[in-house]
Amino acid sequence: MTQRVSVVVPMPAHSQIGSTLTYRSELLLTPGTMVRVPLGKRETLGIVWDAAESGNDLALPEHQMRDVASVLSAIDPLGRSWRALVEFAAGYYQRAWGEVALAALPPQLRELSQQQLQRRERMRPALATSSSVPADAEAPVALSPEQVLALAGCQASRGPHLLFGATGSGKTEVYLRCVQALLQNDPLAQAMVMVPEINLTPQLQDRFRSRFAPTYGDDAVVSLHSGMTNPQRLRSWLAAHKGSARVVLGTRMAVFASTPRLRLIVVDEEHDPSYKQHEGARYSARDLAVYRGRLENATVVLGSATPSLESWHHSRPSTEGGRYRRQEMPSRIGAHASLPLVRRVDMNHQPRHAVISPPLLAAIRQRIAVGEQSLVFLNRRGYAPVLQCTACEWKSGCPHCSAFRVFHKIDRSLRCHHCGYAEPVPRACPECGNLDIAPVGRGTERLEEHLAELLADTRRPDGLPVSIERIDADSTRLAGSLEQQLSKVHSGAVDVLVGTQMIAKGHDFRRITLVAAVNPDAALFSSDFRAPERLFGLLMQAAGRAGRDAATSRKSEMWIQTFYPLHPLFDALKRHDYPAFANRQLAERASAGLPPFSYQALLRADARPHEAAQRFLTAASTGAQTQLAGLPGFSHITLYPAVPLGIQRVANVERAQMLVECPVRAALQGFLAAWQPVLHAVRRSSDGQGLLRWAIDVDPLLI
Length: 703
Ligand code: ADP
Ligand code: ZN
Ligand code: ZN
What we know:
alpha/beta; GIY-YIG endonuclease; Rossmann fold; 5 domains; seven-stranded mixed sheet; 30 strands; binds adenosine-5'-diphosphate; binds zinc ion
């Protein structure tokens, strides 16, 4: 008998959130089954959904209904809880089910036919053994007393737990033990471990492989991140879906992995902004991990030395925040290990225009003389952020963006970091012909050059000249180059490491005893209310790269060059006092009604010309006020005026946004859902002319 099935397909971004399409099928298909279905003139991958759940089935008249083209029966249906996660994410972040569901699957699934999949399945075991790396069993370490307590705490309940552990306190070992206990106690259980950046996955993967492969086999630990090839991703995904992978490691996308028996989710460096997706469904993988834990009865462990203020707030005594359990590990591993001494250099009392102050330079020289490494941190890559004519007003603006192009001396180019537009540096000023055009400001490339000059006469203990290495997005463009650079640092061949936040995070450097932030002041006075939080986290992380070896930790130092040495942020940093910093920030946010004491969403509009973006947003706001005023909770909603983005024009597209704020999360959610049809109508009206796209960003990180 012919059946009707509801199917979600990758529909255009703004089709209705909970919508499915009905197809005919000769077979009874259980929800979660993957199918190929006709959609317009193409055929696409779809997922059978539970018809009863869908309020918006776009059922066509019988004669227009089309047949399911084929069923991917080689793959087990996606589970009920996976579908529930997709529905929640789509609803919360205001996107269509089909869009979220299909984006969560490995890209290759969309292309392969049933036959191709079956062939792949047959080949898999051979492939797996041939690519296996021999794993050395890692000698187990004895846990520190703090680790013992934290581990017991994380095992005592499902949490969510906030593992608040200093840098070098051994959080990774706690994750490993949590996973180990789980795998031992439950022969089917799976764990998911997320890290913010692809760069951090190889190191993590090695540690998990060497710990678990000897017992559970090479296939027990798989990775999922965008740096993998499509076939690799498909293989990992299938192993997780079938349950043969016991540990899934990955970046934010891993949160959507299909795992039939998920019992533990770890989010390492949970404060990191990289957990937020910036296109399509703008989800926070950390927040979804917490939701998923509740949904699937899995323990959730969020780890950080500098938690997000949201998570910190949730881990405060229940009268204040109260949902997370805090597990604390304040000390570094090792009997005499301590956190680096933080030193502030008052730049008001240093020679004018000094980039590296004399005392900092002396300290770096000292380290070199005894064979120790220094890390100099500057969060801006390239040679100089702008090139300027000394005779006229000309600056190296980008013709397509409202931003300057950065001067990269290495290939003498001007490159826009927003749209990618690059050109050779002009020989003379394009406006007046003056030959004297000069770099203004300083990026890592120029800092590296400057340090090389300053340290030209300094010698290493072996009498050789100083070796300086720069690590940033430019130096690591080629595949494998970061690994090469890192192993050079680990080997001790490098004396001074210069870099951006890329090196400040996560890496377990053993020989660095001095870390310096040369110019961190800008974030102190940013209009972005999250800037101090990010700066504090970054500086604590950077400081955490120093003295990770107990033998050297006592003399390790973090230097801050600043014009505001008395700023409370630096004061808290000096005392390694994250709680003081966090509580102060939270008090400010509470009085200003900012997150986590309110909830925000942005309506973003891209258009050409700029007026079109403003017009759309203004009409959207008017539409809300005239049509939605009767909505429960509407009186709590604040709609702010539309404003251009900080960098208003990127790649010739004008960008504007409008902030929506509400102290009650449910009211904001209700409002956003009701706003969708209004926005679609505005888009179609004359007020939508010139609009290229719009999107809603729920819980935005950058405002
Ligand atoms: P975190 O992630 O908290 O910054 P890590 O997990 O990287 O810290 O641990 C710091 C270092 O201490 C690592 O080299 C790790 O191998 C080591 N370590 C962790 N726990 C122990 C322990 N119980 N005994 C000895 N060394 C440990
Ligand atoms: Zn000029
Ligand atoms: Zn540009």
